[in-house]
């Protein structure tokens, strides 16, 4: 093995490790802050995330030149990005709210049903039909979550609804992004899209925070006077939220689509195991069996999509 090949392999392993660490880290920190620590302000927490994403995106693109800056070319394109940002906000806020009530393990099980919602929205909005085998693979995806819900010792209906809403919104953003930014003149890479979406998200979240989480700034300052650690937790958590997006972009760039697919499927399972070890939340055999069925369904769905894309038109 040449030195260059070895160096590339080490770099890729480091990237994947950073991607896993940041994804799982931000998830566990969100859970700790919103549930264990008692910081019950998911909208404000999301606004902190978006503020960090806006700041770090500008530094990475305008100063460090990690990717070329792409400009918004028309008011119509800006309006489309605003719409995407609204859906993005809904997804992240709902996901953070769900973490107040649900264990990370069950949150990940529900989150694994994203392909189901993506297929539904793609059909409803674009009339795009998949091969029948692809739809069949979605049966274990949904069935697994139904089984996991019935066997979840810490099941909470409102948390479950928020988690399903977050998963559906994430899928909706993917479909809408494909529709709205499909022309060559309007396509943005994920880093530039985040650069524009994050500050719009802050503008959207600020009034929602002030109205729905009254005096959250004053409460946070009071908490900081009692325990300054909350400030470091919020800062680290917000920086980690940006790092999730950065590492996701870099892993996508430096690995194949198949590798990314496999790593993505495994990431949820790793997050489940780590969260159970850290938070010691009770799990049942039924719940784990349901989650396993969902993961198997997601893997089969990915394989079916890959094969259908290879078929001649």
- What is the overall number of helices? 12
The gyration radius over C-alpha positions equals 20 Å
What is the terminal separation in angstroms?
A: 40 Å
Q: What proportion strand?
A: under 5%
Structural class based on helices, strands and sheet pairing = mainly alpha
Give the averaged pLDDT, no decimals. 90
How is the biggest beta sheet arranged?
none
Shape: globular
Number of strands: 0
Uncertain ranges? none
What's the multimeric state? single chain
Order of helices and strands: HHHHHHHHHHHH
What's the helical proportion of residues? over 70%
Describe this structure in words.
The chain is an all-alpha fold and 313 residues long. It is 82% helix and 0% strand. The chain is globular and about 60 Å long.
Please give the structural blueprint:
Blueprint: H1 3-36, H2 42-63, H3 75-101, H4 104-111, H5 114-126, H6 132-150, H7 157-180, H8 190-212, H9 216-226, H10 229-254, H11 257-279, H12 285-310
Helix pairs in contact: 1-3, 1-10, 1-11, 2-3, 2-8, 2-10, 3-7, 3-8, 4-11, 5-7, 6-12, 11-12
